[in-house]
Design a protein that fits this description.
By secondary structure, the chain is an alpha/beta fold. The protein has a single domain, classed as 3-Layer(aba) Sandwich (Rossmann fold). It is built from 8 helices and 7 strands, in the order αααβαβαβαβαβαββ.
């Protein structure tokens, strides 16, 4: 845990309800043990979208469509969202919810491995939200930088690994060592990339907020 649980509970108690569809997707996620973004991340995304008013959003990691649909409710009518998902079992669920949202013309779901898809994308984006396989963030970064417009925002979720990121690699279980080392590499790289100004925020499971210079 990164932040005191009582503080988290209090902050979450202040949140206004999401749309009925987002509430439905959230209930499904809880019932089926599918991970979706945390409440603190939701609130942060909403504010950032209303501050930045992006025209084009790239999401790496659709899941069951929850965050893409949530974001679609906080952008201007002309804005578009491109979202990438590789997990075959979740893609039909995401497609179903996107269709139900009535935002099929706003949200473009691309099926496949982001490592393959990102190099093929050409159009730049002014807002990128990364919430995919944590061990792959460092491998996504070169294309993410290429695709992010100057002045654009990059948000990376779940970067502090429940606080384990500060532990020595010798204290990490064998199955988590690769993710631990890659995330440490990602955080060092993104904080020291000349094209970016980045802050690490202990919100949810930790996020980075970067702006391309």
């Amino acid at each position: 845990m990164i932040v005191n649980e009582r503080i988290i509970s209090y902050i979450q108690s202040l949140e206004s309800p999401n749309s009925p569809l987002c509430q439905e997707i959230e209930r499904y996620a809880i019932d089926t043990f599918v991970p979706i973004i945390r409440k603190e991340m939701e609130s942060f995304l909403k504010v950032m979208l209303l501050v930045r008013h992006p025209d084009s959003i790239l999401e790496i990691g659709t899941g069951i469509g929850y965050s893409a649909i949530l974001m679609s409710e906080y952008i201007k009518n002309s804005a578009k969202i491109t979202t990438i998902e590789n997990y075959g079992k979740r893609i039909p669920i995401a497609e179903s919810y996107i269709h139900k949202s009535g935002k099929s013309d706003v949200i473009n779901l691309i099926k496949g491995d982001a490592l393959t898809i990102l190099p093929e994308l050409k159009e730049p984006f002014d807002f990128i939200f990364m919430d995919a396989a944590k061990g792959q963030y460092i491998h996504f970064l070169a294309d993410v930088l290429r695709l992010l417009k100057p002045g654009g925002v990059l948000i990376s979720d779940n970067v502090l690994q429940e606080g384990d990121i500060v532990e020595s690699r010798f204290a990490i279980t064998r199955r988590n060592k690769t993710i631990h080392s890659r995330m440490r590499e990602y955080l060092y790289t993104i904080k020291n990339t000349p094209e970016l100004e980045t802050t690490v925020i202990p919100l949810g499971d930790g996020i980075t907020l970067s702006v391309k210079k």
